[in-house]
Amino acid sequence: MEQADIGLVGLAVMGENLVLNMESKGFSVAVFNRTIYKVEGFVAGRGAGKRIHGCRSLEELSRSLKLPRKVMIMVKAGDAVDETIEQLLPCLSPGDIIIDGGNSNYQDTIRRTAYVEGKGLFFVGTGVSGGEEGALLGPSIMPGGSSAAWPAVRPIFQAIAAKVEDGTPCCDWVGSDGAGHFVKMVHNGIEYGDMQLICEIYQVMRDVLGLKADEISAVFAEWNSGDLGSYLVEITRDILAFKDEDGLPLVDKILDAAGQKGTGKWTGIAALEGSVPLTLIVEAVFARCLSASKDGRLAAAAAYRGASLARPAPFKGDRKAFLVALRDALYAAKVVSYAQGFLLLREAAAEHHWELDYGGIALLWRGGCIIRSVFLGRIKEAFDAERGLENLLLAPYFKDKIAAAEKGWREVVAAAVVNGVPVPSLSASLSYFDGLRCERLSANLLQGMRDYFGAHTYERVDAPRGQFFHTNWTGRGGTTASTSYSV
Predict the structure, then answer these.
(1) Pairwise CA distance, residues 376 & 187, whole Å
(2) Among residues 40, 106, 422, 441, which is most buried (max CB within 10 A)?
(3) How far apart are CA 169 and CA 366, in angstroms?
(4) Of the residues 38, 184, 265, 380, which is catalytic?
(5) Structure confidence by residue, pLDDT tens digits, 39-55
(6) Is residue 487's pLDDT more than 70?
(7) Distant-in-sequence, close-in-space partners of 183: CB < 8 Å, separation ≥ 6
(8) Mean pLDDT for the chain?
(9) pLDDT at 446 over 60
(10) Which residue, among 60, 62, 58, 42, has the nearest Cα to 50 in the 3D structure?
(11) Which residue among the candidates 16, 23, 38, 191 is catalytic per the annotation?
(12) How far is CA 104 from CA 73, 231, 263, 416, in A?
């Protein structure tokens, strides 16, 4: 029997399609699933006649692989990954490679890399984005972990990855231990933000402009041919145009209660731990949480019906001009979302000593993944032009784009507020922009409060940075101040 180039454990949607992708690129694959009937059904069905070998145990999988053995795990994140690693280790030898291709928490990947390396093997934690279609036809792949494993997995990963216009694969080594899964986590956080922004724009069109699903679909179709061209705008166009069996828009029949798998929450937690103002993405996560409380929202809607001043009124302005403003607002907010995401990557790189290539990461996301868009090419150019770029909003290209979009951005947020239409991520993006460009915020008063009740000290504008002061505000306090530190 021919020995396989790689093994894969876990034949759910992503696992199956990755196997078919690998085989279509000339690689032979050994597969195993905990429930054996899935292996048999896959090999006899979609995998029939292909260089795919079904295995009934991990021992058989191990014997089926070329050295060094490469085994990719595609199981549910969490305990299932650790259990699979423990079951695999006795079947493998020093120098073999275990690959976790699921949506694992990057902290687990840091731990697993050290653990597996301690056993004499290599570990790769790789983000894979693109959903079912991407897994089959070409995903974005973000590998990190044991760098010594990269030469062995690179030919396979770069062969199956999506390619940009010049043929460059949307896959390259990201960094050590948990870097790959961290980058994937931030990708998913930006995905949360992008989706929420699109939904807010849709709701303003629906509730302020009074447009129907077909009309909104046409607007997104037009936007998809310009600077906003992206996978998410493209599928928004398609979803809004899709009809149910009765000929009516299916989108109008979908319950407005969103689900989530957790990567957006992880992104927000990482931002809080790193003191990074990831305001837009965190609001997108909370928007999903609020949407899930359908019964509570129905009760509040009934309680405030007729009592609130803010409610959508017939639009009396220039509809065409307002649609341009909506386009500009979406673009500007997207810039903020990516700017905040890359700030989080920068902070994590400093903390974990990862040498992240931000332009390279933008390239990884240009094809195959959920947030792929023409927009990312500009981000790559911005980081390539200035490798030490602190904030994407300060790149010359985006400064010009924000300046052109700012008027419409403000008009849309204002119209939403006046009409009582919730736009948490759009308004958060604008607030972040205003806070970033504000030379003097109100935090001077906040520091005064902290010193007043907790003797937490403050710095002065007429003294060097790093010199702290305490005031006896009431005359009843002493001169002892709290140690000055910032979490």
Answers:
(1) 12
(2) 106
(3) 10
(4) 184
(5) 999 999 999 999 999 99
(6) no
(7) 127, 142, 144, 174, 345, 356, 361, 364
(8) 94
(9) yes
(10) 42
(11) 191
(12) 11, 24, 9, 37
* 32 bridge partner residues: 9
Tell me the average pLDDT across 451-461. 94
Tell me the pLDDT band of 479, cut-offs 50, 70 and 90: confident
Q: Strand 122-129 vs strand 140-145: parallel, antiparallel, or unpaired? A: antiparallel
Q: What is the pTM of this model?
A: 0.93
pLDDT at res. 211:
97
Query: In DSSP terms, which residues pair with 5 in a beta bridge?
Result: none
Strand 6-9 versus strand 175-176 pairing type: unpaired
Residue-level pLDDT at 420: 93
- CA torsion angle for 284, 232, 393, 423 (degrees, to 10)? -40
| Active site annotation includes 184 | yes
Give the pair of three-digit tokens for residue 169: 């694969």
Q: 196 and 426 in contact (C-beta within 8 Å)?
A: no
Confidence class for position 472, pLDDT limits 50, 70, 90: very high
Distance CA 469, CA 443 (A): 15
452: Cβ contacts below 8 Å, ≥ 6 apart: 471, 473, 474
- Find residue 8's DSSP bridge partners: 31, 72
Confidence label for 484 from pLDDT (cuts 50, 70 and 90): low
386 catalytic? Reply is no
The neighbour count for residue 150, using CB atoms within 10 Å, is: 17
pLDDT tens string 275-320: 999 999 999 999 999 999 999 999 999 999 877 777 777 888 999 9
